[in-house]
Write a structure and sequence with these properties.
The complex is a heterotrimer of chains A (324), B (302) and C (369). Chain A has 324 residues and is mainly alpha-helical. Chain A has 11 helices and 2 strands; from the N terminus they run H-H-E-E-H-H-H-H-H-H-H-H-H. Chain A has a single domain, classed as MetI-like fold (Orthogonal Bundle). In chain A, strands 1-2 form a two-stranded antiparallel sheet. The N terminus of chain A is likely disordered. By secondary structure, chain B is mostly helical. Chain B is 77% helix and 0% strand. Chain B contains 12 helices and no strands. The N terminus of chain B is likely disordered. By secondary structure, chain C is of the alpha/beta class. Chain C has 2 domains: 195 residues, Periplasmic binding protein-like II (D-Maltodextrin-Binding Protein, domain 2), CATH 3.40.190; 144 residues, Periplasmic binding protein-like II (D-Maltodextrin-Binding Protein, domain 2). Chain C contains 13 helices and 16 strands. In chain C, the strands form 4 sheets. In chain C, strands 1, 2, 3, 6, 8, 9, 10, 11 and 16 form a 9-stranded mixed β-sheet that branches. In chain C, helix 11 runs antiparallel to helix 13. Chain C starts with a helix and ends with a helix. Classes of the chains: A mainly alpha (324), B mainly alpha (302), C alpha/beta (369). Chains A and B meet through helix 1, helix 2, helix 3, helix 4 and helix 5 of A and helix 2, helix 4, helix 5, helix 6 and helix 7 of B. Chain B: Pfam families: BPD_transp_1. Chain B: It is a multi-pass membrane protein. Chain B: It is found in: Cell membrane. Chain B: InterPro entries: MetI-like (IPR000515), MetI-like_sf (IPR035906), Phosphate_PstA (IPR005672), Phosphate_transprt_permease (IPR051408).
Chain lengths: 324, 302, 369
């Protein structure tokens, strides 16, 4: 550090002004950066505090077990609500979406960075980026009005042949969790692809060339150099995608039908996620205790996505420790 | 494929060393096929959605009134009017959101990468993670209680922007952070070694190097918030007339225009909501292209 | 070196935005000059929110009102009755549209009418019935036209107790009609809705032993599939053979769905503007003075009366808005209540409010100050 200071004094010789600008600039700039960081902290605490302060009174009034009772009766006269059904649909639809989207996204990212001819790579990447430019409400109306009719045959077939598994049991509803999962997968595909692509592209060419020089095929080079380098990035990208799938509101609300009282574990049933439950009822938030019940559901969603993110973070940190 | 099979069959008995080699070649080919197929699968929905939206929505856009008129005085059953009010509303809201969210997001990322050490940095990073998980509808409810219940203001476009800012900040922070981390430390050290102050190093060396990546992140964030419907449902009641004041009155936006007409089955409304969907996609695409041009110019000047 | 290019791009974008700004127009009435409607035109902005059931009706009224008053803008945000009332009380909007009148008993420790009075600076808020519409029982059974149902069978169908269309109970009401054995798929509103509330009020009012649930905005049944908004349930029925739902009339006709006849005890009644109008004509005013809360006789056995109707109220302050808003509210409501406007509503699937009630509504509007 002292040598650096020495240099700057040397530089400052022609005009003493310059160095002081640097120091003042540093203080202002650093202050702005730190201030922004603190602002974000305060913001999240405010959101969290608000969620808790709204959820707690409703939870205290709740006559049912919030975590285990499968009811949702929120009336002005009395409140009995629990979240297991919401939790199930939220997690299952998002996991299904991940199972579909992550492998495709990683392969697409590899295509864009390692396979596609140079001239094609950037327009092709742009095409995939465009998927992110499609708003969720458009995914919703496309998924339900245009895409759904093409999936009914496949869904019926699955229900007929694999109906013995609880997950694929018939009969097939109109707006199913299965359909929502496919649409969610398409929605999170560009997010996962874009970040994976950026990370893969940053693989040091020395690693790649090293692998190739040792006689590795292109796939072996990717497996030994590109993928290990990109794994933390892919994981964080997947988690961002999962977060979006868990919290996606409007598309799920438009696509999936609801079926209170006749809950089925099948992907071919309807159901409500945390977010679509809130959205379906947001127009009628009459009294504060009623809103509280939905905020409590929102809080659970919040905690869920947080756990996912935290897990991702742990994985990334451990990876880093290995690679360094 | 046939040549491939021949390859695997003929040299196999010749030498034991060749066998793993051909297996490796097959694997390599399979990987290539899988990768190309995946790309095709990824492109199908895009083409399909674009085809749907264009074929159903282009009719509305071809009418010049679409770009100059509002929906004032038009009912779901009558043909006519335009989306001007909603286009301008969406642009205004996106601009305000970006103006607030991008500086906060970029500075937070700079803090995390360049300044942050110790407990505060960990807290900030942790909070950004939490913010990533805030569903849009909860962000909207938070702003609702803040803006309406606590302060007693009316629901206006600016309140929508505040909710959108909450959603955009983590996207900008994470993408910027990722890009700043990829800037080689050698560049920073070289700059310090030349006696350039830290803030100037960040402004002149680090940020320009990461610029295209940051722009991509900002655009992804904008694409997300421009299409968000949930905050508009709670905080941004739609209007059929033009309103350019974000602090007073109801302001239209394209997502609410789609959502409002989606409820209708008559042809006039059907054409209009697909038209609005196409317009929204075109707007986001235009932003994307602009972003790409900026990053290209930036590369040239480097 | 890169800055000028940024600046250039930004200024191009700005110029584009300005060009767009300069040419926007709110005038959709065609000929440019629209001030032909005497000198009584008003100006300003009026915001309303609430019931989605009346959306198509109030949109008609707003359209013709804006054509007559080029400087006035009326916005109506169809989010649902509950939200409309909530935002009216919170002073977010100038009037609310609601499928049920303001409640005068305590809910959650607060009384809606008291809260509304507080919002109106101490003056009561009035419920003014301005839109009336029948709720259709829409079904999808190719080849079956003019299906007849009575409240008891309808209740059992909607609760999932009757599972197939050729059930003897349905067949008994439809002699001579060939009913398929298709399974019945019930669609209901998954969002809280005034339509759900009114439909249940009808069922529990006309078949209390078959429909035991307390009417509310939430659907209590456990059979079938819930979908959001009127369009959602109508689309559901349209897509599933054997589907049935309750929905505002216009959605049934727009989707070309079959509409069931209702037999309340005096023979099957087809849903028409006239038969629904009869049920409304029999409605009685339950409110006091200018508060025109109506009560409907759902169990009516009057011949030729279609009994499943709902009324949407505009809820306004009787006093207490500032002068400009008051003028605008009165002018708009007058226009809404006029025979001319009410006459245009039938095409959109509504029934005109009966003359007797219309007169009372007009008196009430005049009394707003």
């Amino acid at each position: 550090m002292s040598t650096i200071t020495g240099h700057s004094e040397l530089d400052a010789e022609p005009s003493g002004d310059k160095a002081s600008t640097g120091r003042r600039g540093d203080r202002i700039f650093g202050g702005l950066a730190t201030g922004s960081g603190i602002f974000v902290v305060v913001l999240v605490i405010a959101v969290g505090g608000f969620l808790l302060s709204q959820a707690v009174p409703a939870l205290l009034k709740n006559d049912a077990n919030f975590l285990f009772d499968r009811v949702w009766e929120v009336n002005d006269s009395g409140m009995r609500f629990g979240i297991p059904d919401l939790l199930y649909v939220t997690v299952v639809s998002s996991l299904m979406a991940m199972i579909i989207a992550v492998p495709i996204a990683v392969l697409v990212a590899l295509f864009l960075t390692q396979y596609a001819p140079k001239r094609l790579a950037s327009p092709a990447a742009y095409l995939v980026d465009l998927l992110a430019a499609v708003p969720s409400i458009v995914y919703g109306i496309w998924g339900f009005y245009v895409f759904r009719p093409y999936t009914t045959g496949f869904q019926d077939w699955l229900a007929e042949h694999f109906g013995w598994t609880v997950l694929l049991e018939g009969p097939v509803s109109l707006g199913t969790v299965f359909l929502a999962s496919i649409v969610l997968a398409i929605m999170i595909l560009p997010i996962i692809t874009a970040i994976s692509r950026e990370v893969f592209a940053q693989t040091p060419s020395t690693h790649k060339e090293g692998a190739l020089a040792l006689g590795a095929t292109r796939w072996e080079m990717i497996r030994t150099a590109v993928i290990p380098f990109g794994t933390p990035g892919v994981i964080s990208a997947s988690m961002l995608g999962l977060g979006r799938a868990l919290g996606e509101t409007v598309a799920v609300m438009i696509i999936v039908g609801t079926n209170p009282g006749i809950f089925r574990f099948s992907l071919f049933a309807g159901g409500e996620t945390f977010a679509s439950k809130i959205a379906n009822n947001s127009a009628e938030f009459g009294s504060s205790s009623k809103v509280g019940a939905f905020i409590a559901a929102g809080l659970m969603l919040f905690i869920l996505t947080f756990l996912v993110n935290a897990a991702a973070r742990v994985i990334i940190e451990r990876r880093k420790a290995f690679s360094e | 494929m046939s040549t491939l099979t021949q390859d695997t069959v003929s040299p196999a008995p010749a030498s034991p060393i060749d066998k793993p080699n051909t297996m490796r070649a097959v694997k390599d080919k399979l990987a290539t096929v899988a990768v190309y197929t995946a790309f095709l699968i990824a492109v199908i929905p895009l083409v399909w959605i674009l085809y749907t939206v264009i074929s159903k929505g282009a009719g509305a856009l071809l009418n010049p009134e679409w770009w100059t008129n509002s929906q004032r005085g038009i009912t779901a059953r009558t043909v006519g009017g335009g989306a001007y009010h909603a286009i301008i509303g969406t642009l205004i809201q996106a601009a305000i959101t970006a103006v607030i969210a991008v500086p906060i997001g970029v500075f937070t990322a700079i803090y995390l990468v360049e300044y942050g050490r110790g407990k505060l940095a960990r807290a900030v990073s942790f909070m950004v993670d939490i913010l990533t998980g805030v569903p849009s509808i909860v962000a909207a409810l938070f702003i609702y209680t803040l803006w309406v219940t606590t302060f007693g203001f009316e629901r206006v476009a600016f309140a929508v922007c505040l909710a959108l800012v909450l959603l955009m900040i983590p996207v900008v922070v994470r993408s910027t952070e990722e890009m700043l981390k990829l800037v080689p430390n050698e560049l920073r050290e070289a700059s310090y070694a030349l006696g350039v102050p830290k803030w100037k190093t960040i402004m002149k060396v680090v940020l320009p190097t990461a610029f295209s990546g940051i722009v991509t992140g900002v655009l992804l964030g904008l694409a997300r918030v421009m299409g968000e419907t949930a905050p508009l449902l709670i905080l941004g009641p739609p209007s059929k007339a033009i309103n350019m004041n974000p602090f007073e009155g109801f302001m239209a936006a394209l997502p609410t225009m789609i959502n409002g007409e989606r409820d209708q089955v008559v042809q006039a409304a059907y054409d209009r909501y697909w038209g609005a969907a196409l317009t929204l996609i075109i707007l986001v695409m235009a932003l994307n292209i602009a972003g790409r041009l900026i990053s290209r110019f930036n590369k040239v000047s480097r | 070196m890169k800055l000028p290019k940024h600046v250039a791009l930004t200024s191009v974008a700005l110029a584009g935005a300005l060009a767009l700004t300069a040419c926007g127009s709110d005038n959709n009435s065609g000929e440019g000059d629209t001030g032909s409607d005497t000198g009584s035109s008003v100006s300003g902005t009026l915001n309303g929110e609430g019931s989605s059931a009346q959306k198509n009706a109030i949109d008609e009224a707003i359209a013709s009102f804006s054509a007559n008053n080029p400087d006035a803008t009326v916005n109506y945000n169809a989010t649902g009755s509950g939200d409309g009332v909530k935002n009216f009380i919170a002073k977010q909007v100038d009037f609310a549209g609601s499928d049920s009148a303001l409640k005068d008993e305590a809910v959650d420790g607060v009384v809606e009418t008291d809260q509304a009075a507080e919002r109106c600076a101490g003056n009561p808020a009035w419920n003014l019935p301005l839109v009336a519409g029948p709720i259709a029982i829409a079904y999808n059974l190719p080849g079956v036209e003019g299906l007849t149902l009575d409240p008891t069978v309808l209740s059992e169908v909607m609760l999932g107790k009757i599972k197939n269309w050729n059930d003897p109970k349905i067949a008994a009401l439809n002699e001579g009609v060939e009913l398929p054995s298709t399974a019945i798929s019930v669609f209901f509103r998954s969002d809280e809705s005034g339509t759900t509330d009114n439909f249940q009020k009808y069922l529990s009012g006309s078949a209390p032993e078959a429909w035991t649930a307390e009417p509310s905005k939430v659907w209590p049944g456990t059979a079938g599939e819930g979908r959001t908004k009127s369009d959602g349930v109508a689309q559901g029925v349209k897509n599933v053979e054997g589907g049935i739902t309750y929905v505002e009339w216009s959605y049934a006709t727009d989707n070309q769905l079959g509409v069931a006849q209702i037999d309340n005890g005096a023979g099957a009644v087809e849903l028409t503007g006239e038969s629904a109008g009869k049920a409304l004509a029999a409605a009685e005013v339950a409110g006091e003075g200018n508060d025109l809360k109506l009560s409907l006789d759902y169990a009516t056995k009057e011949a030729g009366t279609y009994p499943i109707v709902m009324v949407t109220y505009e809820i306004v302050c009787s006093k207490g808005l500032d002068a400009d808003k008051t003028t605008l509210v009165k002018s708009f409501l007058k226009h809404f209540a006029s025979d001319e406007t009410q006459g245009t509503l039938e095409e959109a699937g509504f029934a005109p409010i009966p003359a007797e009630i219309a007169t009372k509504v007009n008196t009430a509007i005049d009394a707003i100050s």
